[in-house]
Structures are given as structure tokens and as C-alpha cells.
Amino acid sequence: xxxxxxxxxxxxxxxxxxxxxxxxxxxxxxxxxxxxxxxxxxxxxxxxxxxxxxxxxxxxxxxxxxxxxxxxxxxxxxxxxxxxxxxxxxxxxxxxxxxxxxxxxxxxxxxxxxxxxxxxxxxxxxxxxxxxxxxxxxxxxxxxxxxxxxxxxxxxxxxxxxxxxxxxxxxxxxxxxxxxxxxxxxxxxxxxxxxxxxxxxxxxxxxxxxxxxxxxxxxxxxxxxxxxxxxxxxxxxxxxxxxxxxxxxxxxxxxxxxxxxxxx
Length: 264
Ligand code: NAD
Fold this sequence. Notes:
Layout: E1 17-21, H1 26-37, E2 41-46, H2 50-60, E3 68-71, H3 77-91, E4 96-99, H4 114-142, E5 145-150, H5 165-185, E6 190-197, H6 203-211, H7 213-223, H8 233-243, E7 254-257
Parallel strand pairs: 1-2, 1-4, 2-3, 4-5, 5-6, 6-7
GO molecular function: oxidoreductase activity, acting on the CH-OH group of donors, NAD or NADP as acceptor
Keywords: Oxidoreductase
Protein name: NAD(P)-dependent dehydrogenase (Short-subunit alcohol dehydrogenase family)
């Protein structure tokens, strides 16, 4: 029987133009690689490690393609405007934006320094807003586009025993911003979703694993019904799905990928 629709191409991103922030390492790197594997060209936005991002772009372009690296701090409006201008100049369009860049400043709430609170919000919340405004303007003009924000389980639950209220509040804000933008931009054909990862092994969390293996075993892994932490590869499918036409009727969704950590 001949299928009525070409379902095999639902996740195909051939020729799509994608921007991934914080894409030189960790989760962002895996997401950039996954989008490229589905056929997208990727602009890898990095704050400091330009050489690393350029090497990744060269790898992604090995079989052909037009991925590139660009240095920018997502919390700085001028930097963000420069990224959008470069995307416009080079590609003339933007189909996918993954707002992955994020930071965490741990510390108890009672004497948490205001400058660290503000730094957390500047990168994790304002960075998502600024990038979405700059790249979203192109998507609104095109009447098409998909934004995927990297939120966190920490936007839904309070992690324990480590305390990091600023981070948790920032990720809850990312989730709500996702829903607000999805609502406002649906009429322009732009979808906005988020993933909410659980504990994932990256450079960020490796240090904790090294210094506090018991916390990782007894709280992070044991907290998930699957009794383990996740890998960056386990986030790739969710982001490819949300970025692709397979998710054409999905917007404002916070897609949890946490091994069941937030179930209990
Ligand atoms: P990471 O520290 O390895 O990567 C973060 C990346 O963001 C780095 O490349 C960093 O340079 C970049 N970045 C930070 N501030 C920036 C800025 N101002 N401008 C541009 N780039 C900036 O961390 P990761 O574990 O890969 O985390 C990636 C995202 O996933 C973050 O938003 C994080 O909050 C989120 N997350 C991580 C976990 C986890 O367990 N690792 C769980 C849930 C959510």
C-alpha cells in the first residue's frame, strides 16, 4: 500500500537554517550535531570558545553544508544583533533557533548575592528573550519558524540537596516565556517549545560527579524512576522533533526528558 503522506521525511531538516546558542560543548554541541545530521546548516553561537566552535562547524561541513561559528554573549543586545545580522547576511533566513546557553550560580537563598542573581537572569532569561526577538523577527517576516528553548526540571521542582534558587527561578521563567511567545507568535506561523531535561552528564555536571559522587548516586540518579542520569544524546531526538515539521501542531509545550525524575 502506498502511504498517503511522506512520513519518512517528517524529521528531515535538509537545507533548514538553525542557530544554536552555547553550541561548542555539552548539550548544545550534541543538539548542533543532531540538527546537522538531519540536514540543517547550523550557526554555532559561543561566548568564548570560538576555536572549538569553528572546529565543530568544519566537522559539520565535512560532507557539504554551510555551518559556521559566531562569537556572542547572548545577554548583550549588541552581540545578539550582530548574530542576527550575520545570519541574515549569510543565509537570508532562519528556520530553527535553539536557546541552549545557560549558567548556574549555586548558593543558599538567604545571602545569595544580588549580582549573581542578576547575572543568572541576564543569561538564562534575557538571553532567551533577546535571541528570540532578534531571530524571531526573521521568522515572523517569513511566517514560519521553530524555536526550542532549553529549560530544566529545575523550572518545575526544587533540586535537593544543592541549593540554587536563582537558576530554578530562571528556568521557570524560560518555561513561561516559551508559552507567552508561543501564544503571541502562533498567528505568525512561529512555534515555540522547550525541553526540560533532568540531570544530564556534561562538563557542567562532571565536576559534581567527581567531587560529590554520593550526591549524584543517592539524589540525582536515585531521584529518577530510571535510577540514572541521562546523556546529551538522549535530548537530541526531542529537539529534532520539536524543530521539525513532525511537530507542526505542537507549540507552547514543555517537553520533559528526565528519566522520570519529576514523577514523584
Ligand atoms: P555547559 O556549561 O556545558 O554549556 C553551556 C554553554 O552555554 C557553554 O558553551 C557556555 O559557554 C554557553 N554560555 C554560557 N553563558 C553564555 C552567554 N552569556 N552567551 C553565550 N553562550 C553562553 O552546560 P550544559 O550542561 O551543556 O547545559 C546546557 C543547557 O542545558 C543550559 O541552559 C542548562 O541550564 C541546561 N540544563 C542542563 C542540565 C544538565 O544536567 N547538564 C539539566 C537541565 C538543563
